[in-house]
Amino acid sequence: MSDHDYVPKSKFGKWFNDRLPLLTLGNHLTDYPTPKNLNYWWTFGGILSFCLIVQIITGLTLAMHYIAHADLAFESVEHIMRDVNYGWLIRYIHANGASMFFLAVYIHIFRSLFYGSYKSPREIIWIIGIIIYLLMMAAAFMGYVLPWGQMSFWGATVITNLFSAIPFIGEGIVQWLWGGYSVDNPTLTRFFTLHYLIPFLILGLVVLHIWALHVPGNNNPIGIDIKKPSKDTVPFHPYIVIKDGFALLMFTIVFAFFVFYSPNILGHADNYIEANPMVTPAHIVPEWYLLPFYAILRSVPDKLMGVVAMLSAILVLAALPWLDTSKIRSAIFRPLYKQFYWILVIDVLILGYVGAMPAEGLYLLIARVATAYYFIHFLIILPVLGSKEKTIPLPLSITEPVLEATLSSATIREKESLN
Amino acid sequence: MSEKKTKRREFLYTASYAVGAVGVGAVVWPLIDQMNPDASVKALASTEVDVSSLEPGKAITVLWRGKPVFIKRRTPEEIAEARAVKMEELKDPQKDEDRAKDPEWLVMLGVCTHLGCVPLNDKGDYNGWFCPCHGSHYDTSGRIRKGPAPTNMEVPKYEFVNTNTIKIG
Predict the structure, then answer these.
(1) Which of A206, A242, A409, B121 is 20 to 30 A away from residue A299, measured at CA?
(2) Between residues A226 and A51, the one the model is more confident about
(3) What ipTM goes with this model?
(4) What is the DSSP letter of A96?
(5) For the segment A161-175, what is each residue's pLDDT rounded down to a tens digit?
(6) According to the model, what pLDDT value does residue A135 have?
(7) What secondary structure letter does DSSP report for A150?
(8) Residue A1: pLDDT above 50?
(9) Shortest CB distance from A284 goes to which of B37, B133, B150?
């Protein structure tokens, strides 16, 4: 990389940069050599940064009007919706922003799964990503509690009770989390504090995520190691900036559609009823982005094992770089993995669907099969595939297949002219 | 360095770390313990309930420590049903006699032992309670019969202050 040779043009710039090399960092980010074959699935990193910033800004402004107290929280949210200038807009952006954040993160994760971006030397990037994902779930869950509606209250009750599955100390941990004998005001105030804190933790981890990314550089659709900089790369600015910007524009159209045309479609009507510890809603369902894990939780008939299965479903992802034993990154060159990949996508979608349905009869059976398959994919199929699969030969560089194609078509034309 | 000196240095390191660890623990514990139930929460430990208007077969739900408590005045049929159950059939074996001191009155936390939802009265396959969240069925003694809940609904500490009043807690 040319970072170390960078010298600012202006005299002041040079003076400043010698004392704090911010301009060197800026130069590194603009010149950063990026594989030139990155497709639109790679734009979700930028989109996710956007989502985080949107959540932080709208969250800060909401916090200026929200009151974290069991008696006042529900009313203060209605106050935001009805009285505060543009309060409805800010709250709808924040609430739907969470869903958009998860939509983008799922695409981002499944892109990594398809192109093998988690493989050596990018394991640390991947693990930091999984930690960010866990923190996102924690932040989303606690944020959902803050309006203190029926779903807030009972969602909080069910999720905190997961800890009671821990043998011996479980009950004590749950009371410690609650600050009482049930979800109540102390729970609300601490959830508000943590909900406020987590986005900044995520922000810090995002910096590490990008830092770790910039060491080996981006993976790319054909998943081969490339020389940087070379004819296989383009500078981040303007090429990737423009591509990311265009993708972000498309993404904000979807975002705006939800905010302006169906702001409540991803929520639950029950959450517009104030929290009542005496009545459980007939059907408790978490937000859509947690449904696959909820389905796994419910598919196990034992309480402790259900919780263990749900946590394992997330933690197995952290071990993915070592479970997938194939040296080939991109699914493009792995004909069998490509098929299993799509089966996994369908499996997760099915889990999401049954997670929203009552846990009985056929739904329960489907949930159990899908849960079993989820673990089979990671724990059996991937390790075995690494040695058994016959992969397609990799090109030597990103440009090679392109050049070869032009070369061969040129030869064909030559032959034709001869005839 | 002589061996004696090395040993002395190692001892000093270990001792310093140990003192440091105690110091860190002493600072961290208050920060952790502040999250436990506080004095004002603990102060609301008991509730008195007037049950004079409750007719046989009916149940009321009262709030105790932020949690619902079911008080059910059982009919003779319900008592008979609860007492006829064989212990082998139960996931969490407990005699009805141990759960209801006075067989007519069943007092228990209205909290599903699975994940803490409030079960619905007079529902489910065993004529007792049914939890709508994850499908746990309880019998007329509040014992788990079917579904993911691991244990029976908990019976809190309670007593009859007089014939009409129950004190919970």
Answers:
(1) B121
(2) A51
(3) 0.78
(4) H
(5) 889 889 999 989 999
(6) 97
(7) H
(8) no
(9) B133
Dihedral angle, C-alpha A206, A207, A209, A213, nearest 10 ° = 140
* Angle, CA of A135, A40 and A355, to the nearest 5°: 45
Q: Which of A148, A164, A171, A181 to mutate to test the interface with B (most CBs of B within 10 A)?
A: A181
> Which of B60, B134, B154 should one mutate to test binding to chain A, selecting the residue with the greatest count of A CBs within 10 A?
B134
Q: Is the pLDDT of residue A409 over 60?
A: no
- Dist. CA A371–CA A361, nearest whole Å: 16
Which of these is catalytic: B134, B157, B164, B165? B134
CA gap B102, A253 in Å, rounded? 65
Active-site residue, B114 included: no
DSSP readout, A108-146? HHHHHHHHTTTSTT-HHHHHHHHHHHHHHHHHHHHHHHT
Return the domain boundaries, chain A: 1-7+25-284
DSSP state of A41: G
Under CATH, to which class is A1-7+25-284 assigned? mainly alpha
Cross-sheet strand order for the sheet of B144-146: B120-121, B129-131, B136-138, B144-146
Q: What is the pLDDT of residues A31-43, one digit of tens each?
A: 999 999 999 999 9
pLDDT the model gives residue B38: 92
Q: How many inter-chain contacts (A to B, CB under 8 Å) are there?
A: 84
* Distance from chain centroid for Cα B21: 36
What are B98's two structure tokens? 């141990």
Q: CB distance from B135 to chain A under 8 Å? A: yes
Partner B, chain A 162-191, Cβ-Cβ below 8 Å: 162, 164, 175-184, 186, 190
| Residue A121 contacts B, CB cutoff 8 Å | no
Q: Give the CB-side neighbour count of residue A414, counting CA atoms within 13 A.
A: 6
**Contact across the interface for B63 and A186, Cβ inside 8 Å:** no
The reply to whether B157 touches chain A by the CB within 8 Å rule is: no
Query: Do A179 and B118 count as a contact with CB atoms less than 8 A apart?
Result: no
Residues A168-189 as b/e (b if ≥16 CB within 10 A, e otherwise) read eebeeebbbbbbbbbbbbbbbe
pLDDT average, residue stretch A44-73: 98
- Residue B24 makes CB contacts below 8 A (sequence gap 6+) with none
Interchain CB contact of A302 with B (< 8 Å):
yes
Q: Which of these, B16, B53, B67, B3, lies nearest to A182 by C-alpha position?
A: B67
